[in-house]
Amino acid sequence: MASSPTTMMKMKLYDSSPPSSTAAARLLPLLRRHHIHFRSSVGPFHNPSSLRTIITRSAFSSSSVITAAMTSETSVKVIDGKKVAKDIRDEIAAEISRMKDSIGVVPGLAVILVGERRDSATYVRNKKKACEAVGIKSYEVCLPENSTEEEVLKYISGFNDDPIVHGILVQLPLPSHMNEQKILNAVCIEKDVDGFHPLNIGRLAMRGREPLFVPCTPKGCIELLHRYNVEIKGKRAVVVGRSNIVGMPAALLLQREDATVSIVHSRTKNPEEITRQADIIISAVGQPNMVRGSWVKPGAVIIDVGINPVEDTTNPRGYRLVGDVCYEEASKIASAITPVPGGVGPMTIAMLLSNTLLSAKRIHNFK
Ligand SMILES: Nc1nc(=O)c2c([nH]1)NC[C@@H]1CN(c3ccc(C(=O)N[C@@H](CCC(=O)O)C(=O)O)cc3)C=[N+]21
């Protein structure tokens, strides 16, 4: 674990200056660049609203401080998932070539796609491209919508037994006539790079146990917090959404990192009262703009997992992607936030590559 690419990258980033001057600053309009501050109130970043409060309450006489405070109202830090994901991919590529040179093994990822959903086809294509770029060999199986469960299970079994395959991913959602549970259970746990196997989730939930793989999207969320030096230990974290693939494992991961965690879901009464207590919010519900500015505590750090298409006639695609969080409002109150697109999405794919490399290293006992 100590030599895993992600760990190494983390150490590297901690050693260097915070990414304010590079990644996030690039995303900010030029004029605002000079007003990024680091002030530890809640998050590690300057929190516009709380600084404003401090300024008005105490008798600062320096006009420059006041100017800085006033002009930095909108200086939320944009957490650049695209940039971080690229850094991680570069690191993974280097590790893969080191492994290939030293033991002649190339990591392999098998992807099973059932049906003709356009979004799924796009995701699978993107995963394949990402694999190629870092030197992972990808093996793709596309089955028609009306395939039987047995056919899918047959492919899984073949990949389970195939030594050139180190990771197996069954693209979700599966057609409704298939039993998702039965199919995901068939992936052998040593190759479950999605981390969806119940044994993996069970270990994730238990103290003193280690899962073989951490699910990619939640892992990507935590990785972003680490790389932007957001302290998790002792903080209040609220996860919005309780899905098996994001919300629940994200909550477990935050708890493993010593946060005090609450989960807000569709049956929660007054969810905004709970999210307003959060130093860290991870939202994964799939509802565009559900988390409003009024749900956010000043200075909170927001990780927005939602990738929701909304109609947009000005866009050539006819739609644009928005998160679960109302970015317009929340970015005025939070200290840091992930954009959509360009936030968690690219991290999910980077973590899939990371898990595939991890699997190949473990199977071949390569340190
Ligand atoms: N077994 C399985 N594992 C998955 O990990 C899995 C899955 N099934 N089914 C579907 C979801 C969705 N998912 C995404 C990955 C990357 C982006 C991504 O890179 N999004 C870009 C935007 C891309 C665009 O512009 O369309 C971004 O947010 O910047 C999005 C979504 C993985 N999933």
UniProtKB/TrEMBL annotation:
One of its GO terms (molecular function) is methylenetetrahydrofolate dehydrogenase (NADP+) activity. PANTHER family: C-1-TETRAHYDROFOLATE SYNTHASE, CYTOPLASMIC, C-1-TETRAHYDROFOLATE SYNTHASE, CYTOPLASMIC-RELATED. It holds the Pfam family THF_DHG_CYH. Keywords: Hydrolase, Multifunctional enzyme, NADP, One-carbon metabolism, Oxidoreductase, Photorespiration. It catalyses: (6R)-5,10-methylene-5,6,7,8-tetrahydrofolate + NADP(+) = (6R)-5,10-methenyltetrahydrofolate + NADPH; (6R)-5,10-methenyltetrahydrofolate + H2O = (6R)-10-formyltetrahydrofolate + H(+). Belongs to the tetrahydrofolate dehydrogenase/cyclohydrolase family. Pathway: One-carbon metabolism; tetrahydrofolate interconversion. InterPro entries: Aminoacid_DH-like_N_sf, NAD(P)-bd_dom_sf, THF_DH/CycHdrlase, THF_DH/CycHdrlase_cat_dom, THF_DH/CycHdrlase_CS, THF_DH/CycHdrlase_NAD-bd_dom. This is Methenyltetrahydrofolate cyclohydrolase. Residues 79-194 form the Tetrahydrofolate dehydrogenase/cyclohydrolase catalytic domain. Signal peptide: none annotated. Catalyzes the oxidation of 5,10-methylenetetrahydrofolate to 5,10-methenyltetrahydrofolate and then the hydrolysis of 5,10-methenyltetrahydrofolate to 10-formyltetrahydrofolate. GO terms for cellular component: cytosol. Homodimer. Gene3D superfamilies: Leucine Dehydrogenase, chain A, domain 1, NAD(P)-binding Rossmann-like Domain. GO terms for biological process: photorespiration; tetrahydrofolate interconversion. Residues 215-362 form the Tetrahydrofolate dehydrogenase/cyclohydrolase NAD(P)-binding domain.
